[in-house]
Sequence to fold (490 residues):
Amino acid sequence: MLNKQRHIYTKEQVRSYEGEAAKQRGIDLFTLMQRAGEAVYKQWQSFNAKLTLIIAGNGNNAGDAYIAACLIKDSGAEVKVCAIDPVKTLSGDAAKAKQLWLDNGGIVNEFANSDLDCCDCVIDGLLGTGLNSPVRENYCEIITAINQSEKPVLSIDVPSGINANTGEVLGAAIQATKTLTFIAIKQGLSTGTGKQHAGELILDELALEDAFSQLASPCAHLINIDSFNRLGSRALNSHKGNHGKLLCVGGNQGTAGAIRLSSEAALRAGAGMVKVYTHQSSIMPISIGRAELMVMSENLEQALEWASCVVLGPGLGQDEWAKKTFCTVMHYCQEHNTPLVLDADALNLLAENASAYTLAQCVLTPHPGEAARLISKNTSEIESNRFESVRLCAKRYNATCILKGAGSLIDNGKSTWVCENGNAALAVGGSGDVLTGIIGALLAQGLSIDEAARYGVTLHARAGEVAAEEQGQRGMLPSDLFQIVRSLIN
Fold:
């Protein structure tokens, strides 16, 4: 289904190949720095700032900042440059850029918190992609002051203090309004904390896109709703059986809402028939108001034989009924190679019985806490390197794993995709249950495991954006997504 996607690279790949790519295009690295500075200047124009404060470090990011400072000064706007160490002698191309600023009548000042009171925006050229260890105290103080000022910030290449590969905050990090990154998108800016700190992420390939892409192989791929071809039209003489039979299993006593959300989402996403196996006490709450669902609490084996794919976990619980139900479904799907989506307590039960099952056609949908249990880590370890975590989970369970969160990741053990869509409106209980139902519906309609995971995540995320655009992020109910998903999928 994918028709286009953008690529993501590690900072080491960019550092290794940018020189060769520039050489192939007949330009030197200082010319590349000048192009970067010009790109910063162009993005700066959108801030409409009368007085701009530029914070420069000691590396190539500082060089980009000095080039931009010259261009801003030449435009007639007021600009003040502060350096972490104003008298430090820089090296290489950064030194050339600083000298251009000085030759242009510029001054390099020492930073003071009062500088933030008068400026309209900040250009962050403090730290770049080379950062691997915690930010030193003097840098932390400047970063904290900038964040507390709440002034708009344009970060150069990566927000200072962010690990460009993992997105981890290394002690303290700039909260950027915009981040202008060069050559290629660094993977740490696409997900989790890195995505949060980057703000609006803008890529300028500095006219090296063709040369660079021929040298470097992407480590991951960015996808959004526009990356996918539409599902094919249904045949005029098709019937409900042609569009899949999905069995949704869950809804223990007192938690009927979760499996109701999954099963109704599956109907709205196009599944031909949806049957729910649930706790006897949950039949009435699930059935009321949604007559299209077939709800039962007995004959689970018979329901499994009926199904073309299965969703297991929403509202399942972890009591004896849940464990018995889990084992029955897992053994059946393993023996019959039935496509399976695992969520919520099914993931927690899987973590306790990891060696008991060999998964074949399976999608796992953990949030960071569930992922931590699946691969025996803690949540902070998961979030500190989401790319590594999702790959480890996919490989350990021989499944396609979705690590939910800002910039949700989809990994099948060989390739990784990052969803660009989504926002904080989806951070509400029940949202994950809707996602699980959507993926189940796509499997029921014949998509492969990977296709259903990728497209399902993107549909769900884009629906959250539409809901927020219409009525705001706060107060969205997961069920508000149903009609939007239906519209998007059509």
